[in-house]
Amino acid sequence: MSQIKAKDNIVNLQRRYIKRDVATDREYIQMDRNENPFGYSPGVPIAIEKAYKRLSRYPDIYAGKLVGKLAAIHRIAGENIVTGNGLFELIGVIPQIFLNPGDEVITSASSFDWYRIASSIANANVIEVPLGEDYGISLKNIRKAITGKTRLIWLCNPNNPTGTVIAESEIRELLENISPDILVVLDEAYIDFVREVPPVNSIGLVKKYGNVALLRTFSKVYGPASFRIGYMIACESVTNAMRNFKTPMSTNSWAVEAALASLEDRDFYRYTLEQTALQLDYFYREFDRLGFPYIRSNANFLLVHVLQDSEGVVSVLKNQGILVRGGREFGFPERLRITVGKEEDNALLIKILKEYRVQFKLSQG
Fold it and tell me: Where are the beta strands (DSSP E) in the chain?
């Protein structure tokens, strides 16, 4: 028996961290991972086929073609952009590069868990603050938690799992009132889906404030999540450090071609947004009829209250072939996080919940 153990802070993390693999025991409708149920641009496989001849070659270490395209789209210098093997890699590398042991990191207690994991692995002290009254990330609570040891703040915007958005004015106020040596990371994985509040000019924030890093991904609105590609936009000192010390050549050639093809196809981009909005509205109507409270979402998922411990509902749906996410690990034990699916999949989910709702009422007397 090996006596080799993970370091202490990893052991402590294992008690709380839940890592899920894709269920393979049967064919499931996956509504638990916030993937794009509408697929990806038809241009992606065409671009991939053209890239076959380069299989024996290492990819461009800096993904220059993609960086150039993104720089033109965002009207920012290519030196301000660095790509990664999905946002998981970039989020994982940020604390390793910018934090010293004992530095403090602030994140929301109900947000994307990888911020806490990555920061803890880097031997930082993680401070988790509660959400505000509107289920949104509270910058007021975050400002209260800042100390002289704070070096990193994670902001998921829109927030996962609540789908709420921090207003640009609030972010600017935060940046104006904190030390410039605190790095503020804006994770905008779901930013394209925002429709109920004014958009945040995050590129403008990066240009004005040297301590802002912006994260974007191709896994959500564009669809090709399996290629694992995302990018950071920040000031040159931040991107240079990331570029030099993250895993070399972590962005593969096929991922670059898939991303480029995705950026070119505005029709698929619009189609995804239109269908997501239609299906979110369908969920709102049906949950109103069921009497299930929900948080209106600016993402491709929503958090709904099922009036009981959600794990039982997760099991019922899984038995019927649908995977959703229970809210216990986010601090919402009676809620489900449901990824917006195709029309027929959403209708099936609602049908099952209606039947289960009747059974639950009967069991309650």
Answer: 29-30, 81-84, 104-108, 125-129, 150-156, 183-187, 212-217, 230-234, 294-295, 301-305, 322-323, 325-326, 335-339
